[in-house]
Amino acid sequence: MSIHNDVSRPVKKRFRGVEMRKKSLLVIWFTILGLAVASVLMFAACGDSSDTTTSTAGTPSSTAPTTAEQVLIRVTTPVPGGDEFLTWAQEGMDRFNARTNGAYKMEIFPGGQLGPFPESLDAIRTGAIEAGLIPLAAFGGSVPEFGLVELPFLFNNGEAAAYAMPSIQTVWDELSQAQANQRTLGCVFVGTANFLSTKKPLKTLDDLKGVIIGVDAPPMVELVNAVGGSGLVVDFTEDYSSLQKGIIDAKTSAPQYIYIAKLYEVAKYYTVFHGISGMYSFTVNSDVYNKMPKDIQDALSEELSATAASISARYVTKLYELEPVLTDLGMEFYYLPAAERDKWKALAYPGTLDALAKLGDVGSRVKQITDEANAKYPYTQQ
Length: 382
Description:
Blueprint: H1 9-25, E1 71-76, H2 84-99, E2 104-109, H3 120-126, E3 131-134, H4 158-180, E4 182-197, H5 205-208, E5 212-215, H6 218-226, E6 230-233, H7 239-244, E7 250-253, H8 255-260, E8 269-285, H9 286-290, H10 294-328, E9 332-335, H11 338-358, H12 360-376
Parallel strand pairs: 1-2, 1-3, 5-6, 5-7, 8-9
Antiparallel strand pairs: 3-8, 4-7, 4-8
Helix pairs in contact: 2-10, 4-10, 4-12, 11-12
């Protein structure tokens, strides 16, 4: 989950890599990771099919009349089709569609069908594509502030990250309007990246010395190097072979992706420490949004916000749901004790504070939001 320049590698890790293997792997991700977007993030197989996303929006329908000239809002995303993440997201969009009485139709086009992922932010900005479900941190090269959400040790755990998403959405909406001509109407927590190791459990700083750890983007390299390992950027599509051949000793990965990509076949030790979290966002071109009647704008904002909160909650629990599944497949989970995590954080977090400080008011606001979330949800060894 990179925060500088074009952080598209994490996206590839969870989604593109999954899609390359989806014929055999996409059985059920995040289907987000299926993240589950193919499952990061990849939980579809383990998801409860009877558990549907629930909207908290209060208004059941819009006053918009049914019209023959339906407005189509196309939503671009790098997440592959069939992913649980997209199923949940489309359910929320369908509720919006119903509230407009057919005047609007919001529809996801998965797997980059509408264009290359690196071009998606600009395509939404110009109106070439109406909306997106994208990881804005990947566009930190265009809007540096977007990268802040994936800084090392920014959040204590998934609970804190999910709690912070509505407040982050407010800040990101201001940024995206001012710098990318689009509204950010929902921010979704999509899991944390932890260490999956082939040779031994990584329990202490001593265990990390000299260990070659594959990561998805440069910020993760900084994290790994800070704690004594040797970080190496590896395309997530190469995770399985890189671990199998010993090119890397360990890899940053989310449990959803481990399951879908069958990484448990080549690595069995999983150290949970919630080092970096991931986020996707619902964005809509500002011109498209501004042309909507007020009640339609309200319906869209309400449904996407509610859907984001519901999906975030799913990803908080996905780690714990998948643990027994992966354990049965031979993996060993190790939750880093708080005292040991504090040692790791002491080495990497100063860089996070420096990055926040460099981005002025936005960095200060993000720090305030994360401090509140972390105070509410302290890290615990589970």
